[in-house]
Amino acid sequence: MGDESTISPKDRFLTVYGRKPVLEALADDGLRVDKVILADTARGPGAAEIQRAAKAAGVPVQHASAHRVKVLAGNGKQDQGVLADVVAPRMRALSAALADRRPPSRVLLLDGITTPANVGMILRTATAAGLDGVVVPRRGVAALDPLVVKASAGVAFRAPVLRCGSAREAAEMLTEAGYGLYALGASSRTTVFDVDLPQRAAFVLGGETAGVGPEVGELVTEWLSIPMPGDVESLNVSAAAAVLSFELVRRAR
Asked: Which residues are in the RNA 2-O ribose methyltransferase substrate binding domain (predicted)?
């Protein structure tokens, strides 16, 4: 857990890459772009347009090797030699959230969800439902990249994202902080609609194929199901997250 003691840049920014996403971020008055990083090899009208847009927005442009840009973007095929670090005002380390005077009362924990579209839709849904946090581990979950931002319709920038190393690490931290840990599983008799919840609860959403992993599963307080009278085996994880999130809204009302 050593990486929890220092604030990683990945706990402050969402990095977008590619010329169109970077230009869109620079043009959006609702976003604050910390910096643009442009590859030394970037030439022509596209690079010039980005430099003009950054200057107009008062955003510094740093230059780096093409290799460095690929490493920072994490996606060498689509970065087009440019990326931007966009300030995510509600994103922070899980450890910082738990140390707050008023820690979050209801959070989602993503475990092994690797499809960017699902992560993006979950962030959009959780933000719409007013949840206090979505724990997005750095390992084992889709990176918070332009595909996630697109799936969230831009909401990812202002979502209450909580970062940590892994889902197991998050489960341990939440358990130690007194949270009940609930996981969605199809076979449980207890449903999301009738479970008695403690003051603080975290809900684990498992991966698209394997579900909740055994490392997190062994720490779960109780498994919950979503009743489905129709002849369907399971819901997509983002649909299940929506059902759960708005059940929490209903209870709060």
From this structure: 15-92
Q: Tell me if the pTM is above 0.90.
A: no
Tokens representing residue 121 in the block: 């839709």
Candidates 202, 4, 201, 2; CA nearest to 95 is: 4
Domain count, the chain: 2
Task: Dump pLDDT digits (tens) for 195-224.
Answer: 999 999 999 999 888 889 999 999 999 999
**Bridge partners (DSSP) listed for residue 111:** 206
Q: Residue 130's domain is classified under what CATH number? A: 3.40.1280.10
Domain that holds residue 27: 9-87
**One domain, residues 241 and 181:** yes
Query: Do the Cβ atoms of 50 and 81 come closer than 8 Å?
Result: no
